[in-house]
Amino acid sequence: MKLTDIQSKVNSTFFKEHQKKLYQSLEDKHTSIEEMDDGDPLTTKMILNMGPQHPATHGVLRLVLQLDGETIEKTKLDIGYLHRGVEKIAENKTYQEFMPYTDRMDYLSPYSNNVALCTAVEKIASVEVPERAHYIRMIGCELARISSHLLWLGTMVMDAGAISFFIWTFKEREKIYDIMDRIGGHRFTISHSRIGGVANDLTDEAMSHIKEFVNTFPNELRDYHKLLDRNRIFFDRNEAVGVLKTEDALKIGATGPVLRACGYALDMRKLAPYARYNEVDFDIPTRLEGDNLARYYVRMEEMSESIRIIQQCLDKLPKGPVRADNAKQAYPSKDEVYYSMEGMIHDFMMTDTGICPPDGAESYHAVESPKGELGYYIQSDGTGHPWRLKINAPSFTNLQVLENMLDGEMVADTVVIIGGLDPVLGEADK
Amino acid sequence: MSLQLSEPLQKTVDALTENFSDKVIEVYQSSGDTFIRVEADAIIQISTFLRDELHYVYLSDIFGIDRYTSEERFEVVYNLLSLKTKARVFIKVRCEEENPELESVNSVWPAAGWNEREVYDMFGVFFRNHPDLRRIFLPEDFQYFPLRKEFPLLGIPGSIELPSTTPDND
Fold first, then answer.
1. pTM
2. Whether A18 and B114 lie within 8 Å, measured CB to CB
């Protein structure tokens, strides 16, 4: 039985052309090395559609797998189920107006996304950010990294079979949500960063919560290690699963912890330090194996490095303003807005026109988000709206790796491999 | 305007202008980033040269820009990173509005696969010799290219078939 016969049985009402091309593309993959088995398709070959509504896919990711028994012969990914066209929206918004949309890109670490946009706009419009704001941003980014990695840890271990562990990591994420609530007034989509600084200073309450978290979290991390590091089931599910070879990793363009688990210490915080990452001391954890277990170790060590960075930031946190004091570049403080006429006009102008980078200027700035290199390319036409804003999303880059990595794996390992890659579809689908 | 290039970038620019003197159109800097615009027909040779001789092994991103001009309307930018020298360089090529077509760099950097699909999906720039050039976000049934400037922000009503909101298609 030919695959085309199977295709005709797939009864799809919508996007017929799309489905047809997707199956055709699956059939075409590796055709040169493949020999078709004409046996009973029910016992040997089948096409399995996983997703888009599948709890283990961390969003709306659809995988079309061709199986031979339990082995995956080849895979095609279908993404775009969460496509909102944020790049088109960005062209019709001012830079500050666009920021809440970045929260909803990688919704597991909104703070990193805000900072990525702000640093890119600051680069193109040459805005000076006060020292204190840099340090507050770093604290926020590292908290976001821990928060994102905790979700990855919980869901990945749950994919491997340990359900209760998820609740442990969410207990800690809850604390980070509370901190975010005290920093910026939002638990989830925080939007605390502003072009030219941050929205408000850290309150004493927020500071005490951050300090408490920094002191207690290493113990929790030690407990996670105790549970997993010698866990036979966890090892069997993750060791030598989803191996990305070191020589392939760069070619296919992996990024973030996935690349670092293959031996490349590529980290934007070291490669092109932004904020004040050049003034704090931290290491880039790497592994050589490139399997799921290596990614586990890399991310676990990244969490303790993040704690190290936050501690140093808290020690070094300088005093001073948290936003650039230039009415043409950044929002004035609320005190000015409420009690002076100029302040109100400036606030209105910032909201109405916003910051205007020079005509024809282009810039690209990348930050290290929890998933990898998150870059914003901005081309300005001299108005308050970008002419073109391109988001280089790490999840998108890593999902392409997945398409190459799944071939030859077992179907039961699929969810663990997806869990290990940690894609967020809000970001990949733009 | 004189260029202020770091040492590895200076080396890159020198090597490119030396080996592809008639193919490099312009080199410019903006906000500290270096952009090199080259002839579209030489992109494969230049890509291979950059990868093999200048260690630009990591393709970070490919994206399109709609310049909305009558000539050479679409621009495709290759965002390259050299892990050895930590230099980042942007290679730009332009193509015409009518049947925009470029050679795929998939053979040079396999990472280009999905990024080129995205450019095709958003701008309609076609890539020759791409192994699997399909739309990536939007379904194949969609006939427009949404990031072109003439595409309205609110979309085109009826351009895409939506599921019926009543049960049993009544």
1. 0.86
2. no
